[in-house]
Amino acid sequence: MKVLIMAGGYATRLWPITKGKPKPLLPVGDKYIIDYILEKTKDLGLEVHVSTNKFFEKHFKNWAEKNNIGLIVEETISEEEKLGTIGAIKYAVSELGVDDYLIVAGDNLFSFSLGEFLKHYSGRPLIAVYDVGDFELAKRYGVVLVEGDRVIDFQEKPLQPKSTLISTGVYAFPKDVIEKVGEYLEEGNRDSPGYFIEWLLKKDVEIYAYKFDDYWYDIGSADSYLEAMKTLLKESQIEEIQISSYSKIINPVVIKKGARILGRSIVGPYAYIGENCVIENSDVSDSIIFGNTVIRGSTIWRSIIDEKCEIRNLELKKSLVGGHAKIQRGD
After folding, report:
1. Residue 13 maps to which CATH number?
2. Between the N and C ends of the chain, which has fewer C-beta atoms within 10 Å?
């Protein structure tokens, strides 16, 4: 069995933050999203590869070398060109060879152990499922019906979900199913894992479900990104920074090197402050501020601000600000 982490999406729902950086390499606390997934593969003793695209290859190269991970790079540079998840799986398998595969979406954060998941793998397709507890929310995902641990029905993004149990982007596929990927695509089916599962069921392939509780985050929106940080950021990580005696830090936070917390500022709880940021006479909480951003005389709450921005004299709530933006209100 090989592990394949899918990291080739262009994350349009998080634009402009992800226009120039891949979503799996966004920070959650003191680590990247994909680091949490990689940690869960460490004890499996399996070969791990990451599937990405030409546009984001340069972002992953150093990370992959540092972690001794193989990169599979599809030759696409835009949302319009991308292969899609099933197409990317087909391409990766053409490079790596047919095998059993543990496939994990690179923008998912989940509580369960992949080792425990694989204990339930018997050589038949296995998918990880989670109860979101809300029918409206379930409409966004692949909805699963089970009898015991066997999947008896699957609906991708249904208008009227039959349950609130959804598929979470973690799959174990045997060789014989991996070999069906080409057939699925040749028939002109939609390039999505959920529709592939539906198709397999119609082909009378037995599929099983692994249910888990605690937490699961599909980092597809600013809200889910910030909620994931609140769940996973347990302890503060503060590097070499400058902080005035009138400022206060409320744990937990991550503050990267070179940041300056000046004047009467309050940072935290649940704040990520990137390298060389300046926070002056401002309050920042439940927010992610990327590097080299300057915030003066402002209140920032549940917001994500990209790198090299300048925010002055503003109150920002539930906002998403793209890189190099300059926003201010008159004094």
Report:
1. 3.90.550.10
2. C
